[in-house]
Amino acid sequence: MSIGIRIMFFIMLALLHIFIYYVLFKNVSTNPIIKHFGKFIIFANFLCIIVFLKLYHTHIDSTLYTFLSSALGIFWISCNVAFIVFLFTICIRLGFGAFVLDRLQVSIIFVAWGTIILLCILSFYINSKEPKIVEEHIEIKGLQKPLKIALLTDMHIDVLMNKEEISKIVTQTNLTQPDIILLGGDIVDNYYSIVEDSVLELKNLKAKYGIYYVLGNHEYYYDTYTIIQALNNLGITTLINQTMVLRNLGLNIAGVADLAGNMKKFKQSVLSPNLEKTLSYVDKKYPTILLSHQPKIVKSLNGENIELIISGHTHGGQLFPFQFLVLLEQPFLSGLNVWKHNLKETQVYVSRGVGWWGMPMRLFSKREINILYLMPTK
Known about the structure:
The chain is α/β, with parallel strands linked by helices. The chain has helices at residues 3-24, 32-55, 62-96, 98-128, 163-174, 192-199, 224-233, 275-279, 323-329; strands at residues 132-140, 147-152, 180-183, 211-213, 237-238, 242-246, 251-255, 288-291, 308-311, 335-341, 344-350, 368-376.
C-alpha cells in the first residue's frame, strides 16, 4: 500500500471517528465531563486501531491482540449505527421540527448505544462458536464417480487462531472423512516462525486422495516461500499455476496463484497468477476443478472448460453490513453460483471461511467448514 493511500486511509478513519462522536456523544448532555469522556472513548478507540495495524504482523500477547483488534469491529458497528441515527434525526427534524428532536435526542442516543453494545456482544458470540459444517451437492459433467471434498479457506493462522483452534478444526474436518481436502488460501497470516506450532497441526489432516492448497492474498504479505515449503513438508500439495491430474479419479484439480501476485514486487515471479499456464496442464478427457482464492478470477475466463471454481476470500462479509462493500469488488459473496462467459457456464462455490481476519467478530456470517459432494451429471 502506497504512502498516499495510507495517509488517505488514516484521514478517513479519523474523520469517521469524529462523525461518531458528533452523532452519539456531543448532544447527549451539556455536562462538559460527559463530553470529555466521549472524546476520550473515541480517541482511545482510534488509537487502538492504529496500534493494532502497526503490531498486526508481530507476535503480541493474545489478550492485547483481542483488545486492540476489537477496536476495529467496534468502530465498524458504531459507524453504521451512527449513520442510521444521523439519517433518523434529520428525518425527525424535517418532519416534526427541532423542538421534537430535542425532546427525543437523548433517548435516541441511548437506544443507539444499547444497540451497539448488543451487536458487539452478538458478534463475539457468533465468532466464538465452532465452525458449522455446510454441505453442498454439486453436479459435475464428466465426473466418473461421486467424491466428497472438504474445503477450508481463510483460516488466518495467527495469534488467536492458535494451535488449539487449529487442532479443533482438523479434528472436525477429519470426522467428515473426505476424499480430498482443499485449502483455499489465507491459511497462514503471519511470519512462519511466529506461527510454526499452529501450522504444524495441519499435518494431522487426513484425506484419501490428498490435500491441495493455493495461496491467498495474505500469504503474500509474509515469507511466502517459507510458508509454501513448510506446507509442502507436511504432505500438502501446493498448486501455483499448476494442475494435478488425478487419473485414478478422472479429475483435474487446478490451482492458480492469487491475484495479489499482480503486485509489482511479484509481477515477474512464479507467484504471479497465470490462468492460461494453469490450465495448460489439464487432461482434457477429465473435468476440471479450479481452486482460486478470490472468486473474481471468473473475470479472467473466456470460454475455458472449467466445471467448478472453488474460492474463499470474502468471509461472507464477516461483519455486517460489510457484505455490500465486498460485492463491489467480488462477483459473489458465498454459496454456489454460476458465471457465464463466452457461451460457457462455470459453477462457482464461495466459502465464508473457517476463521476470521483481525477482530474475532462476525455478524450475520458464521464460520464454516464446507463439505462438497461432487456428483456425476444425471
